[in-house]
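Slide 14.
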Amino acid sequence: MTKYEKTKTDVVPIVPLPSLGVGRPCLIVLRGATAGELHWVEDGTTLGREEGVPIVAADDEVSRRQCRFRVLENDEVLVEDLDSTNGTFVGGRQISEPTRLHEGDRIQLGHGMVLKFTYHDELEAAFQSRMYDAALRDPLTGLYNRRYLDECLESEFAFASRHEAALTVCMMDIDHFKRVNDLHGHEVGDLVLAEVAERITGTVRKEDTCCRFGGEEFVVVSLGISLAGGLVLAERLRGSVEQREFRYEDTTLPLTVSLGVAGFPYPTIEGPESLLSAADQALYLAKQRGRNRCKVFVTA
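Slide 15: predicted structure.
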């Protein structure tokens, strides 16, 4: 017998873990400003933008009081729309009366907030929420990752096309970042990335989506902001980075960023990929023209 073979006595029987209790109804935010968050559902739980409601949604497309959940004696859960502006959808269909929810149902509110309905005990629910959040977040900066960006941009572009709404993408690159790593080490470089991410989130709206695109590049997706408004936002982002020096122990570094802005609708932009590509082209132009500046994508 080789060292890789096992005898019957090597097999350890798997003993099922004891039940942790009856599952409780809960909602996990799959898409939106609070993606990854978990909310328990009680009888009468209300969701909306109004402060004080049990589940607050940071999305302008969600009404102040969007929908309400009812928990019946048999633990079945109903959701009812509260005459919201943009409607409540279950499984892709807009509801007009209290609707029973089933395990795994997806609830969409406004254009971009999507929740999953499920039953879990507290340990399972917390674990699933953390795992989902970890799958969508960049561990260093806490911003959303490229995977989430692709999903978000596709959804936002579809909404903008359907409702003839404006959509802007700002792509940002830290100037001379390689020099930071070469002169001060990757530890300082990582701290710079985290600092820039914090300045980004402190500048944009709650409903904007901030992502780490890769390396030292970041992307901000803004629905409802025109190309001109996107340039204003880009200048604010540029200024928020330039105005404060980065300090770490005895290291002081001036930081600047270059930004490219692209917007929809625009004649040559036909999908989310071309919108992102256009922002990247504008960013390249900003770096080519001397860095620490913003450029807008335009065609000749």
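Speaker note: Confidence is low (pLDDT under 50) at residues 1-21.
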